[in-house]
Prior knowledge:
The chain has helices at 4-13, 18-59, 66-71, 76-104, 106-118, 125-133, 138-144, 150-163, 167-179, 186-204, 207-210, 229-264, 266-274, 288-294, 307-310, 315-327, 332-341, 344-370. By secondary structure, the protein is an all-alpha fold.
Amino acid sequence: MGRDMPRTQVCLVRSVPGPFLALLLLLAPAWAAVAAATRLAERIDSWVRALTDPLAGLLTSWPQPFAEILAGDYGFVTMGPLLLVWATPVVVFHALLMGAYKASGLLDRLTTAMNPWLRPFGMTGRELARVVMGFGCNVPAVIGARSSPACARGACVSAIAFGSACSYQLGATLAVFAAAARPELIVPYLLYLGATTLAYSRLVAPRAARSPSNPMLTEGRVVLTWPRPRTVWLETQGVVQEFFRRALPVFLVITAAASLLHWLGALQAASAVVEPAMAAFRLPSEAALAVVLASVRKDGILLLAEPGVAASLSAVQLLTAVYLAGVLLPCLVTCLTIAREQSRGFALRLVGRQALAATGFSALLAWGGAWL
């Protein structure tokens, strides 16, 4: 291995295909985690549902609004399987793979190789690595941006909030495409999400972050080694603990809030306000509720999987609806984390910029895709 090390470094850092190869390797953990988690979820979903569905049936007889909070459309027992079956495996698998990348030194090599390509977008390879980590859960990724340079931290956090499709979002997106019998749409979805995330980062990054005279700091030559299982486990354990400690409590709070809003009719009222705007994206009014709920919690995208909605949408409309619901606003847990890590003012500005950018990119996809 020692003789091949310099050759590997030249391939990843100096040669022309190096950055492209590094990009593929950086995206590989997210793709592999989603594929593995989907297969696992398909096997265990029926078992989990067999346990939770009878319980939900019993809880519906409880007095309101407790029955709605526990077993309604957005209740704990109703939505819990999504967390256990779809979200958690993605977080664990992704954390394991990224832990192996870190422990082996490969992550540092890849981020160094990506740096020349990413500088015009106000990021370095390390910031891109954090965006990729956000595909498991946005919270650890946003917290990890603390070590970014001051000039690049804001752009990194913005890119995570916009383009890191967390396990909730990614699992719900896969479920919607599967319900519409179009699972192959995941490829153009991820490509468009990645391209627009880079474009958005270019728009919001300060000039200092895009300056060629602002090189990425490295800690000398990184030696590739076989990852030790204990080191990988420690990396994985930290991410998974952060996911359950920070994301799970907010998941419970948002579930209760969404259930109460649905019981009070507030979600339906909000969707009625948003319905006329769906025409700007060539979408039917039925997509409005999914967009509204996904702005609070990303599993709201699952409303697009309802037979009457999924079957009525063309491939471009389905891509537009899923993309718009996913990126219009960061989920509430991500917003709260950003406000705590940065400031409330920064979080509010980020939400406004993201909503404008998501509206423009969604309209481009809707109307541009219709001409293809």
